[in-house]
Structures are given as structure tokens and as C-alpha cells.
Amino acid sequence: MRLAVRNVLKLRGYEIAEAGDGPAALEMAKANRPDLVLLDMRLPGMDGIEVLDGLKKIDDTVPVVMITGYGHIQSAVDVMKLGASEYLQKPFENAQLVETVKRFVQGPAPRRAPLPLPLQPRPAAPPPAPAPAPQPVLAAPAAEPVPAARPARSPAFALGTALALLLAGFFVYRQVAGGADYYREYPGVAANISALVWSEGKLFAGDWLTQAVYLYSEGKDGLRLEQTFPLEKTHISGLASAGDTLYVADSWKKTIEVRRVAPGLPLIKSFPAPGKVSALFYDGEYLWTCDSEGNAVLRRPDSELTPSVSFKLPEKPDQIFKDKHYLWTAVSSTGKVYRHKLDDSLTLDGVFTLKTSRSGYPLSAFAWRGGRLWFARDGLSVVFEAGRGELLEE
């Protein structure tokens, strides 16, 4: 895989460095700061998540594109919330790889001295394409790919998975009447939703890939886009609505932003948040926050977001929702939904899976409204609405 990726990118004029394992990759990153890292999830000894964390400690601004495979325990959504800039899902086409790199490596630049690493060029497999002006690249995979490149740090992101678009054409959108068995799909929405929240009849959806918040209204024909709020350099991992205030979690920057619901979603204040906050929910009294270690904290919506009560959730959810009777959580990588009693220890009361499966598209956001479950799957331009019959208890 490294050989294939290297050949594709070298033919386009990029400088490539490779590493066969995590420790070697981190040493290379220290010695020659890469501009882009293509990092495989599966590596010997130190996996891709550990390498990603190490890279962010060396340079928190370096873009990292994770390479994932179907059926991997860690979903792409989880990876993005841990700080990756984008992901490629195997198998991918050469054109996908090149277009992904181009999104981070932009504009011509003078050739720099090659990285002092012994690369062994081999015959190129794919035919050459027009070569952009050379820029350096680092690669750090193992039994699978891990290259890197030096991009002009661009905040612009675009959807790179043609697979999602192709498969979308085969879906049958159906609506089943009846309480618990109700089911409906709303196509044509954002494709990489990481947070959903209803507020005064409007649906806010945060897209981690486009770094934008979308506001939808509900109609007979589906969801209609009313406004788009670009949030440059904000990696949206959670949303919570409190009237004219919208809380936005960024697990990469480890912050919780307070924004006013107005044109442009102007920033009021940004709070440092210990850990990687992966989910938010406002219950009318407290702002619930949850990080990647499963620490759930109730915070007062005051000028300091003062912590009031904390819990430890063993499932380490990346999505949360509270209603009058339960705290609901979900884990993207497993697709499981958990129900907790609202007692002094948030006792686990049930574990569920979704009846409607979409292989390769992990559960990425959910919310309850009027007794119905609204949810999204990463990579699909669809929001789902279903009755409680959608949840199958284990």
C-alpha cells in the first residue's frame, strides 16, 4: 500500500517520506515537519489513533488524513472527533487520493531539498496526470498506507467520498405509518453530520467535514435548508441549543464555543474544555458535556460554564440526549444506543441497536423529538426519523 500511494503521489510531483510503524513516523514528524500526513488506522505496535495523538502533540496544526477500512472497530466519525482532518475509506481510487491531497496542498511552491530519508523508487503503477508544482509529503503507514505532504493550511473541506453519492442512488425512501413502526428518510441534507439538535421547530445540523452548521425547517416534502453558517476552523463534534444561544463543541481544539443564533452565528465566548468534548446537550437547566473518556459533566450556563455534577459513563459515548425520564447516549463505532436512568449514578437501563442497517455508514448523530428518533449516518446525505420500534433491545 505504501508503495502504491508513494508512486501515485510522486508522479504528481510531491515529495514523499514513509514510515513502517508509529514510532518511526513520530520521529520523522519531529525531524521534518510534514504538511500533510496520510495515516493508516492499522499499524503494528502503535495503532493509528495513538499516532494521531502523538502527531497532534508535535504540531497540532498538521492536517492528518486517516485511512480506514470497512468493519474497523473505530469509525471515521470517532477519528474525526479525535482530530483528523479527513479520512479515506479503503478501497479508494487513485483519483480520490490525489484529490484529497490537493485539498490540503495548494498552489505552486519552489522545490525544496528532499527529506533525508532513503526512498527506493519503483515502477509507477498508474498513468501520470498533470503534475502540480512540487511540495513535500510525509507517509507513515505499516502493513498499509501512511504518506504525508506539505500543504498550504487551507480551512476549506469538501466531500471526498464518491461512494456515498453512488450508493445514495440505490436507496428507497419510504414512509411507514403507525406509532412505533413509523419510519421516514429525508434525503438531500448535509452528508457528514456529527450533531443534531431541534430548537423551536428548526433542526440544527453540524457537519464536521464542511465545518458548517445547517438550519433546516420541516415541511410536507421533507427538510428545507433555511440557512448555512460556515464556522471556519471549527471541527464540530457537538451542538446544544438554549434559545438564542448555540453551544458548539470542538473536540480537536478542546473548546466549547458560545454563539448567538443570528446571521453568521457570531462567537460570544470560547471556553477551554478538559478532554476532547464529543457531545453536548442543554436540558433547560444544565449544559451536559461528555468527552472521549466518558466523563459526563453538568455545567451551569453561566459566564464560566461552572461544573456542577459529574458522572463516568463506561461506554464512552460521542452522542448524548436527555429527556424527562432518561439520558440517552450513543457510540458511533458500534452503532449502539444506551439508555440510562436519571438517578445518582446514571444506571444503565438498556442497550439497543438500530433496526435499519447501513453497512459502512456509522451512526453519527441522534436526537429525540415528539417520541420519535431522529438520526444521521456519516457519509449519507440523509436524516432519518423513526418510531421507537427502530430500537432493538439487546
Write structural notes for this entry.
With 394 residues, the protein is mainly beta. The chain folds into two domains: 2-139, 3-Layer(aba) Sandwich (Rossmann fold), CATH 3.40.50; 162-393, 7 Propeller (Methylamine Dehydrogenase, Chain H), CATH 2.130.10. Helices cover 14% and strands 36% of the residues. The protein contains six helices and 25 strands. The chain has a five-stranded antiparallel β-sheet with strand order 18-19-20-21-25, with no helix packed on it. A four-stranded antiparallel β-sheet has the order 5-24-23-22, with no helix packed on it. Strand 18 (319-322) and strand 19 form a beta hairpin. Helix 2 (22-31) packs parallel to helix 3 (48-58). The radius of gyration is 21 Å and the shape is globular. It starts with a helix and ends with a strand.
Beta content comes to 35-45%
* Main beta sheet strand tally, sense and closure: 5 strands, antiparallel
Helical region count?
6
- Compute the average pLDDT: 81
CATH architecture of the largest domain: 7 Propeller
Report the end-to-end length measured between terminal Cα atoms: 39 Å
CATH class of the largest domain: Mainly Beta
The portion of residues assigned to helices is 10-25%
Strand order of the largest sheet: 18-19-20-21-25
CATH superfamily of the largest domain: YVTN repeat-like/Quinoprotein amine dehydrogenase
- What count of domains describes the coordinates? 2
Unreliable spans: 107-137, 139-177
Our Rg estimate from Cα atoms comes to 21 Å
The gross shape turns out to be globular
In the CATH scheme, what's the topology name of the largest domain? Methylamine Dehydrogenase, Chain H
